[in-house]
Structures are given as structure tokens and as C-alpha cells.
Write a structure and sequence with these properties.
Elements lengths: L5 E3 L6 E3 L1 E4 L13 H14 L3 E3 L10 H9 L8 E6 L17 H15 L4 E6 L8 H13 L3 E7 L3 H14 L6 E5 L11 H7 L3 E5 L21 H5 L1 H6 L2 H14 L3 H10 L7 E4 L3 H11 L6 H10 L5
Parallel strand pairs: 3-4, 3-10, 4-5, 5-6, 6-7, 7-8, 8-9
Antiparallel strand pairs: 1-2
Length: 323
């Protein structure tokens, strides 16, 4: 088993592995984890590797709720060995009844959490995350509803996803003003090629002591080292549904990065994990997997190289934005 590091999530007592398992592939058509058997294999491999943070959402899967349902069965007898994170707030297409777009409301949150608990076959959710603000519900109402769920023991901690910097600040000060539990984590897109979070989100995260959880940290797999200008694995997400990411990638920079890695005898995957985990406030890199061997590769890569401050800066420089 890889010697995975564990960190507290923001200013909380929730400890998670620095490599998390993104569960959006569970129940996704055309993957090995489309089935219960495939999901069981990946979850078992992750637990064996020391991965504890499992991140899903009620919307994940070929049909709404399927990822959670598959996970609920796979985690039977193993629930207390992981930190289970899920999300609410995306369009469930009527699965939770009509919502009129107010998916951060007290009414909707109550429906959503009970549905997730049933699908996950558990009595509690460790980290319950607002997937996206609805633009309708005041954040105070959302926090008040989540406060009640914490008091009832149905959820332990709360986080959010896809908030802008000013929204993170608003949530922080609203919680302080009304005496509600604070969000402990933020989940936004962040990778070597998508650095927008550095402008406002990461400064807000660090100012208020949240743990940062980047999604698409490997840019849909581009930084696994398996891709080149000519293509990559035929069964990968990029080749099957997001070929434009390959076609539009800045290959001159990526090849410079590959040379940087080769000079140090480190894989691109390991270097990318190391760069991410060196960023202030970043707690865990949530990476998806559809096969057990991918879990093992991620866990091994995350513990195989510790860069110097100069090497971290050099990687940042290779992919520095020009605007």
C-alpha cells in the first residue's frame, strides 16, 4: 500500500487522504464502472490503497442518483472506513420532485439529503456540499437548513462547489453573523491548464481557512502522461467524448513539461500531483478512476516525488497564463 499522506480539511477536524476518489464515473455509460461489479472493484482498490475521501454527487451517473446507488451497495460493511462526500443543488430532472430552480432552499435540501441517504445506504454523510448556488435562495437560508441537518446527525460537515470569491466571503460572514457552522471546503476546477481559481477563489479559501478540493485536476486525464499530439487511450474520456481538449491543448508547453519530468526521472502524473499538493490550502486531489490499477497508479504517483520550491515555481511558469 502506498504511503498516502493525510491532511485536515481546512480548519476542521475532518482528516482526509491527499488523494481522493472522484466518483462521477460510477454508473457512467461505456466505462468499466458502469456496473456494480466494476464499481465494487474500484472502491475496494481505493480502500486497500489507503484512499479515504470518496467524492460523489446526487447527479452523477447515466441516470440521476446512479453513482450514489452503486456506492451504497459497494460500501456495505466498509462505510466507517471512508470519508463520504456528496453534493446537492444541480438539476435532478424531477427525481427529487419539482424544485422551481430553488435548489439551495430549506425545502429542497430536505428532499435531497433524504434521497442521498437512501441511495448511499447510510445514516450520515461526512461532507455535504452545495454543488452550485441557485441564484435564488439567500445563503443564510441554505446555511440554516444545513445547520439543522448537522444538529440531527445526518451530516457532519458542509462544503461548497463552484462559488466565486465574493460568494465564498459572503457565506463566511453570513455564518459568523448568524452563528451557523461554516463551510469547511471549496471545490472548484483547477489544474495546470485552468488556473482561474488563483485570482479570487484560492485567496478567499486561504483567507477563511477552507480546504480546497480541485476538480478535473488532471484536465480530464491529459496529465496522466498517456496522451500525445497524436492521441491517447481509445477508452479514455478525452478520446470518447472530449476530443476537443486534445486538439486544443498547448502541446508545446506540455512537451516542455514532459522534458522537465524526464530530466528528473519522474512521471508526468507524479509531478502533477506534487505540484497540486504544494499549492497553499489544497487538501486533496480528487481524481477519477474506472479501473483498480488506476487507483494504484494515482496513490503511488502521489507519494513518489517531493519537489523543491524552485521546481514547483518552474512548473507554474511553464503553464503561466498570458492574460
Amino acid at each position: 500500500m502506498a504511503n498516502i499522506e493525510y491532511r485536515t480539511l481546512g480548519r476542521s477536524g475532518l482528516v482526509v487522504s491527499t488523494i481522493g476518489l472522484g466518483c462521477n464515473n460510477f454508473g457512467r455509460t461505456g466505462t468499466a464502472t458502469e456496473t456494480q461489479e466494476g464499481t465494487d472493484a474500484v472502491i475496494g482498490a481505493a480502500i486497500d490503497a489507503g484512499v479515504t475521501l470518496f467524492d460523489t454527487a446526487d447527479i452523477y451517473g447515466a441516470e440521476r442518483g446512479l453513482s450514489e446507488s452503486l456506492m451504497g451497495k459497494a460500501l456495505a460493511g466498509k462505510r466507517d472506513r471512508i470519508v463520504l462526500a456528496t453534493k446537492f443543488g444541480m438539476d435532478m430532472a424531477g427525481t427529487n420532485g419539482p424544485d422551481w430552480g430553488a435548489r439551495g432552499s430549506r425545502r429542497y435540501i430536505r428532499l435531497a439529503v433524504e434521497a442521498s441517504l437512501r441511495r448511499l445506504r447510510t445514516d450520515w454523510i461526512d461532507l455535504y456540499q452545495l454543488h452550485r448556488p441557485d441564484g435564488v435562495t439567500p445563503i443564510e437560508e441554505t446555511l440554516d437548513a444545513l445547520d439543522d441537518l448537522i444538529a440531527e446527525g445526518k451530516i457532519r460537515y458542509i462544503g461548497h462547489s463552484n462559488l466565486d470569491g465574493w460568494q465564498i466571503a459572503e457565506a463566511e460572514f453570513t455564518a459568523r453573523l448568524h452563528g451557523h457552522p461554516k463551510f469547511i471546503s471549496a471545490q472548484n476546477e483547477y489544474s495546470l491548464l485552468v488556473r482561474d481559481a488563483e485570482r479570487e477563489v484560492l485567496p478567499a479559501v486561504n483567507a477563511y481557512g477552507l480546504g480546497f478540493l480541485p476538480f478535473f485536476p488532471l484536465y480530464n486525464g491529459l496529465f496522466t502522461g498517456k496522451f500525445s499530439r497524436d492521441g491517447g487511450p481509445a477508452d479514455s474520456r478525452i478520446m470518447s467524448i472530449r476530443k476537443h481538449l486534445l486538439d486544443d491543448a498547448p502541446w508545446d508547453r506540455i512537451e516542455e513539461y514532459r522534458a522537465f519530468c524526464d530530466e528528473r526521472g519522474v512521471s508526468m502524473l507524479a509531478a502533477t500531483f506534487a505540484w497540486l499538493l504544494a499549492q497553499p490550502g489544497l487538501t486533496s486531489v480528487i481524481a477519477g478512476a474506472t479501473k483498480p490499477e488506476q487507483i494504484v497508479a494515482n496513490a503511488d504517483a502521489a507519494t513518489s516525488w517531493t519537489p523543491t520550491a524552485d521546481e514547483v515555481a518552474r512548473i507554474s511558469e511553464i503553464f503561466a497564463t498570458t492574460d
